[in-house]
Amino acid sequence: MIDEELVQLLTPEGERVTHPEYASTLNGEQILSMYRDMVIVRRLCNESTSLQRQGQLALWAPMQGQEGAQIGAGRALQPMDFTFPTYREHGIAWCRGVPPENVLRLFRAVSTGGWDPQKYRHHVPTIVLGNQVLNAVGYAMGVQRDGANEAVLTFFGDGASSQGDVLEAFVWASSFNTPVVFFCQNNQFGISTPSSTQSKVPLFRRARGFGFPGVRVDGNDLLACYEVTKAALENARAGGGPTMIEAYTYRMGAHTTSDDPTRYRVDAEVEVWKHRDPIERIKALLVREYQTRPAAFEAIAQEAEAFALKLRDDVLAMGRPDPLSMFENAYSETHPLIEEGRREMTELMAAGGAH
Amino acid sequence: MEVFFLPDVGEGLIEAEIVAWKVAVGDRVTLNQPLVDVETAKAVVELPSPFAGVVATLHAAVGDTVEVNAPLVSFDVDRETAPHASEKQVVHDVPDEERREPVLIGYGVAHEESVAPRRRRRGAPTSTPPAASPAPTPLARTTPPVRLLAKHLGVELTTVRGTGRDGIITREDVERAGNSGPASSRAPAPLAARSRFVGREIASWSEGAREERIAVKGVLKSMAEAMLESTTHQPQASVWTRVDATKTVELLRGLKDHPRFSEVRLSALTVVALAVCDAARHYPGINSSFDESRNEVVVRRYVNLGIAADTPRGLVVPNVKDADRLDLAGMARELTTLVEKARDATTTPAEMAATTITITNVGPFGVDGAMAILPPGTGAIICVGQVVKAPWVQGDAVVVRDVVEISMTFDHRQIDGALASRVLRHIGAFLEDPATALLAR
Predict the structure, then answer these.
(1) Which of B92, B126, B161 is the last residue of a domain?
(2) ipTM for the predicted complex
(3) pTM exceeds 0.80, yes or no
(4) Domain of B402?
(5) Which of A60, A177, B257, B421 would you label with A53, given CA atoms 20 to 30 Å apart?
(6) Domain finish residue from B58, B92, B126
């Protein structure tokens, strides 16, 4: 994986390395605080996966392994910046201050969103593949016209990078020089399709063809993700236009709880990536360079456990979704096909066929 | 008592098959402790416990297909140690402020009711005010596929007590009711919606094309090539015998709850595997192969024990290397791992190579035995049928014993009927008195 073009500031062993363009600006306190974020977000993912397996969530999109990319990018944001996520950006939602239980409301199907996007400067997840990238560019054009000192950060994966919406968004962003940063987490698989099948060149090189810079960063290196994102956002706010960041990472779990990753990838590959764990390398750095005591890690682990129990309580108290609500929120007005679906569903429920 | 009902772990799945239990009745489990692996149409997934407590009942056995929302595990929950166990009710109790009123007359949301919901009557005059209509007959609460099954089995649903979530009638409830009725009133089982065929699913009889052509590749191809290779190159003959395996059954029952076997599968196959290794040690000639290229017979004084495994991908035959060195616990552990890996399709080519002797276990399919075909390049394959209670002559009395049929197919180029018979009898004797045989090893 180590190639010359990859921005890395911390090796998988937790040793610092230098880079000609980027240097880490974080102090020990900040790094420990971001370590805490990563541990809690991983715990959130584990608990949510369990809740799904226990029938308490309809679906879950795990992001274990991508904590470095998300916490690094999320903590590089300024409060006035705006973010457009996919349904896997639980770490970004955490950094933006969205209450975690609200993130789970969507996955329990008791909400179609979960929070007020303006309040947290974080849009609700877009399920339609790649659509949020167009939305982000449109929003960034608005920012530009308002003359506001804001940047827009939008997320997508290696799979969505093949989607027309994303490529159209690149064209518009480039043509209008919008203050947007495209953060692509290349987690290696578009559901089950390897990213190498989808792109004959490394993804970050595509940006060059659209007329803006692309940077490949070690997505499991929190320090590098933070610095690269921070620089790209500052450049955007200063009128420097878009940047594409390809965070080269690995999704340790399934695409969602509905698929079986053992059918499309081999254990050996997962084992290799385990050694590149974003949390472990920060822990090694904290111990070596900042003499962080075991008690500090233990306190964070305990906090994460208490967090998970509270999250579970919150989810169990949410009640059951009403199956008929799906017919009420898909269209703003009534629609003959929706009415037909609603009628059939009502009858099926009366027959005890849906519960 | 708290019950964990099988959730829909995918999106719109209706059932799952039990692959492996990770807990047993009486085990104390913690919140989120893995309980069971289930295989759905989409994936094999591990289900974590939603409760902390003691496992009271496992409602299904390995290999059973369980419907979504049917009971899976019952727990005796210690409420003081399991503060999260009591929240289940909250899930289904929608708070008053969240209860929704119908927004339009005639359709829309309805109150959640704990009683069976009523079917809206089709064709009823719409002008009839609701208050004037007679109270409709409550309909038994179940799913459409179960209604169909009940119809096929001639089971009157209103007479069936539901054991599923919220008292819903499950497939098992209907099957139980169907079995208790007079046999003559029962119709044949309905056709499955899909059918398994060498590691894939094919359309049902009614839904599929009149003729279907399936490309020969993957597991199907390797099975076809191996069987053709074996039957065209190896002259094969068979011997078989019936065995009183009561003592084996008793031994297994006695050891089942022993801590050494808590995490492994212990079954008749485990004992048969030890018996085959023991027989090979007594008669090394059975553990041999015929090397045509050099015109030599290769006798092996180690056992790479092949196990024919029925997996979601079809038939695969991984082997346990140096199985002759294993004791009962070791064999149970190795076989558990081997079967799990085959199930998960993580068996490596190396684990399927260099088999010296094979066991095929057709018991789980409910048949008594088979005349197996040799895996190419091996000298013998032992086939085990189901263990059943059967009349057995002991002295001059007929008694009920646990009886199993075993057979062996062998390469008749180097192995003759006399050797084969002695080997099979040795295996039989091992199963008849496993304690003594294990001591003698």
Answers:
(1) B92
(2) 0.78
(3) no
(4) 234-440
(5) B257
(6) B92
